[in-house]
What does this fold into?
Amino acid sequence: MDIKKSEKGKGPKLFTVCYCLLILVSFLTSLSYSLIQTLIATYAVDLGGTLAAAGTLTGLFSTAAMICRPAGGALCDVKNKKIICLVSTIVFAFGFFGYALSMNMTALLIFRLLHGAAFGISGTANMALVAESIPRQRMGEGLGYYGVGQVVSQIIGPVFGVALHEFIGFKALFFLVGFICFGAVVVLALIPYENRRPEAEVYETADSKNKTGNLIGRLIAANCIIYALTAGMFSFMNGVTNSFLVMVGEERSIPHIALFFTVNAGCLFVVRLLMGKIADEAPLTIVVTISLLVGFSSMFMLSKAAVLPVVLVAAVLKALGQGVGQISLQSACVKSVDESRVGVASSTYYIGADVGNSLGPIIGGTISGAYGYASMFRGVAWISVAMIGVFLVYELSYGAKKRKGLKNGYVQV
It folds into this structure.
């Protein structure tokens, strides 16, 4: 997976065969998940579960993914990343077959937990492979393009999933999606990859010197925690809007408020496609601060929105903030560690997103239940401002200095 020089002599080449195939793998796995994500709760009820049990079952997927990500990241740093990604993606594909074969809630629960664990490890391993294939000076641009396939799958997946379910039913849909996911396995198997870190070799890096025998240090990249939590702020906003916006529309009599999600996804696609270079060229403090302020504006507009046009403007602002901010922070995570800890850096970044997605509905529900939806959105907006302060203190006092001690993103020892 050596990085090649551009034919035009303008620096390292980005669109290598390996990089393009990994984008396809990410798209196929994300599409398979998106096709059934809105249907799992309904399927659980069909199997005899209560609404509460169905909701819990849906959330357990993210919980299992979050718990297993650190172990997956650590494995990627000591074992062959391609093998880990291949095995976890195979398990992920079989999880869909498990859904189809489940006859009761107990069986569905087991496969749901297995599916979430495989998803967490597969996504982390894929990200580690991608980060390894992108030139460090083009990391933001490369990660921006990499995320486009995921955004597209999130746009088309739920719509096609519901349509296919109505046409062929649950079980046939799960089998179909499982075979789509196996397409990702085939593509993975075709990717040329040479494990650049022998499993038996002991690496003495600036990141690992102080972590010998420290289990937490091996599972979490300390340099990435603030970046991950800052990126998780955008996921926190997602969790709140995904959970409560439709109910806000009903309370305020705003018709077609679900168009927020369509506009947001479409704009996010464009931002991911066009704004990656900003993450490589602009100062991180400026990019992240502006991104969170744009997110603040989006949440504040939703707190007062009474008509659809205002909601749609908020959707555009949210996409702008999230798209540029997350790319920059994801790139910063990768650049803050040496090459031997890219897997742990990737898992740490995704843990921030998992935490944001999990806490968003909980905190949002608590605030809205006590003070109403307007206070909920304002609360989220001000939390994002507080996060700016935390991020700036860390970045100016430590984060920027840490990355300056790296040459091409690798620790010099």
Remarks:
- DSSP finds 15 helices and two strands in the chain.
- The chain has two domains: 17-197, 220-403.
